[in-house]
Design a protein that fits this description.
Order of helices and strands: EHEEHHE
Shape: globular
EC number: 1.-.-.-
Number of strands: 4
CATH topology of one domain: Alpha-Beta Plaits
Low-confidence stretches: none
Number of helices: 3
Pfam families: ABM
Strand order of the largest sheet: 2-3-1-4
GO molecular function, one term: monooxygenase activity
Structural class: alpha+beta
InterPro entries: ABM_dom, AI-2_Isomerase_LsrG, Dimeric_a/b-barrel
Largest sheet: 4 strands, antiparallel
Organism: Dongia rigui
Helix content: 25-40%
Distance between the termini: 15 Å
Length: 98
């Protein structure tokens, strides 16, 4: 059976005072990730209501390709550069209801 596409909703909260630095690093991350195999969509959204809150809306061809992304150099570099700027991350894995 073929794997279903996977949607990830990742909520990220910056430490107070680190919002702009984190957002700059997240923008760099997006530029690298959209080129990864299996990436259908990788969008960064900024909250209009909560300072320092961003949301990634991701679509991947499969769970396995998302797992490859989680181990990819772009994400590792982001964690090394900006991981200390993140106060909280909440990940939701979702599949289309079809």
């Amino acid at each position: 059976m073929a794997q279903k596409p996977l949607t990830i909703i990742a909520q990220v909260q910056a430490h107070p005072g680190k919002e702009n630095e984190l957002l700059a690093a997240q923008r760099e991350l997006v530029a690298g990730v959209v080129k990864e195999p299996g990436c259908i969509r990788y969008e960064l959204h900024v909250s209009n209501e909560k300072k320092g809150r961003t949301i990634f809306v991701e679509s991947w061809e499969s769970f396995d390709l998302w797992q490859d992304h989680m181990k990819a150099p772009a994400l590792a570099a982001f964690r090394a550069k900006a991981g200390h700027l993140v106060a909280e991350t909440i990940l939701d894995q979702m599949t289309p209801d079809r």
